[in-house]
């Protein structure tokens, strides 16, 4: 019986930081021996690989690009090396692949084909923000992006606030970085003064900012996280 290769889920840094400050040696050892990758962006993936293992010859790398423009029909072509017995790596643009990441589709396909999936330890902004928030780590939900439409966004924020109260469940979401400051304005206007809000930006970077306060207390501060990757968490007690 023919044996398949293994699909390694390889985490990356979440910005311009030393990979060895946030990634374990397992990641370096894996990149050392793998030449075939499924990535979101060819250029940034090559940069990440070089940062972790400078000795890797770029000419030997075989990269398949997976993003929102990739057709589902291409996925089977991407995993052909796995089916032929070659180990492959799956990399996200930042953080852990498969979580809030298009790579989840490849992981799903790998399971359907009977390919072993090997997740490697690395930084997850969702979990790190939750850990540092002081909110309910026993029950929380990541909701992705809020709606762009003003009225829909307002309804979503109120819905998540009610969920947090009814279920005692922390509600996490993200925003396109250049809309961060506008989202903060919206949150402070819509949420109850007693609701807790955590803002976690630039996680694992030298400019990391993580703070949890009641909305009433946030209103006393001036905060600017424009164009900085951030996670927002709300919880109404």
TrEMBL record:
It comes from the Bacteria. GO terms for molecular function: methyltransferase activity. Keywords: Cytoplasm, Methyltransferase, rRNA processing, S-adenosyl-L-methionine, Transferase. Residues 27-215 form the Tetrapyrrole methylase domain. It is an enzyme of class 2 (transferase). This is 16S rRNA (Cytidine1402-2'-O)-methyltransferase. Gene3D superfamilies: Cobalt-precorrin-4 Transmethylase, Domain 1 (3.40.1010.10), Methyltransferase, Cobalt-precorrin-4 Transmethylase, Domain 2 (3.30.950.10). The keyword Protein biosynthesis does not apply. Its EC number is 2.1.1.198. InterPro entries: 4pyrrol_Mease, 4pyrrol_Methylase_sf, 4pyrrole_Mease_sub1, 4pyrrole_Mease_sub2, rRNA_ssu_MeTfrase_I. One of its GO terms (biological process) is rRNA processing.
